[in-house]
Amino acid sequence: MTKAARYTPGAGCDLLTGAGGENIRTRSTALLREHGIERERVPVEATEVARFVVPFLFGLGLAEAVPAATLEALSDPEDGDGDGISGRLARVTDGRPGRFGRKSDFATLADFNAGAFFLEMGPTNLLHSGPESVNGQLLPAGVDPAEDPEVGEETLGLVADYVRFLAPLDRRLPDEKAALDEVSRGESLFRTTGCASCHVPVLETGDHPVEALANKAVAFYSDLLLHDLGPQASGVCGPDAAPWEYRTGILMGVGLRQLFLHNGEASSLEEAILSGTEERPKELERPSRACLRWIDTTSSGSFKLSDRKDRPEGILPLRGGYRGLVIPIRGWRSGARPHLTCVALPQPPRFHQSTGRLSCLKASSSTQ
User: Which of 19, 46, 97, 255 could serve as a FRET partner for 139 with CA atoms 20 to 30 Å apart?
Assistant: First the structure.
């Protein structure tokens, strides 16, 4: 996706709401095309334009359940301990801690999803009621026949629950002892070189009304804080983030990616590590094979169904009568992405061997 904003030192960030907002939509509906509207353009007021790749959503319900006090304790905006790391906890406009989005510009999954609906795709909802426009110009009459809000409260709730209960990814460890020893050496290097100062290996959730999210340890490899990546990484600003500040990337799942960094400009893990960001450990001149091998194990995308038999938290109550079971499937081809769907029980999930997919079932109907 493409974003644009205007940043002025001292004045801060302008998300160009009057010119249509920070997200530059590059596709349009058939009705809009009939009126000659193909896409939005970068506003002339913008001082920064940046491209962002879509983040993984695995385990974000657990990220939402990490207490703000935990993140505040990790925050060290003035580098008081002298380790060269100065992460800080972002705040959204109403003061709540931001933890979602590359710029930590959303406090909750509900906010995150509602923003994605409106800012990226266009449909209005309870949190983003419009008016709908193209580069700040109201839509021509007749091109938007749907009643507002186009995404209702129930739909927002279902999508939020779906994202909230997507399971975190397990590690994929090699079977051979020599390879396992190499991975162990890589993990030790990851910690001793200082990478774990930002990519904190484990965060713990606090008390939560949903047992599946309460008091769990999850290996995000992120502190969920904003960090200064330096002028070479400068992009758009956020509500509480300068153009050069980004939330620490979650490494869980990174081995499944083909493009790396927030903008996808790195085509390998090694290239991403050597990108020259301000807070990269200076002693990390070139990552070893062991370190790269270990990072790759932080993502498997694969649980065996048998792994879930003694884990009741895998079955969760959702809105609208669903009970969700979210399972990444073992055995998909090398380089492929896991395909996750919800499964409405009590009907058994239907696994399709040819595609590696689970059906999403409710009552007597079945949809993929």
Answer: 46
Report the predicted TM-score, pTM, of the whole model to 2 decimal places. 0.78
CA 103 – CA 48 distance, rounded (Å): 14
Q: E strands, the chain, where? A: 2-8, 12-14, 23-24, 48-51, 133-134, 137-138, 203-204, 217-218, 226-228, 245-247, 315-317, 323-325, 351-352, 357-358, 360-362, 365-367
Distance CA 145, CA 32 (A): 12
10 Å Cβ neighbour count for 266? 17
pLDDT in tens, the chain (368 residues): 899 999 999 899 999 999 999 999 998 999 999 999 999 999 999 999 999 998 889 999 999 999 999 999 999 999 999 888 899 999 999 999 999 999 999 999 999 999 999 988 889 999 999 888 999 999 998 898 889 999 999 999 999 999 999 999 888 788 889 989 998 998 898 888 888 999 999 999 999 999 999 999 999 999 999 999 888 888 899 999 999 999 999 999 888 888 888 888 888 888 888 876 666 665 566 667 888 888 888 764 333 222 333 333 333 333 333 333 333 333 333 333 333 333 333 344 444 444 444 444 333 333 33
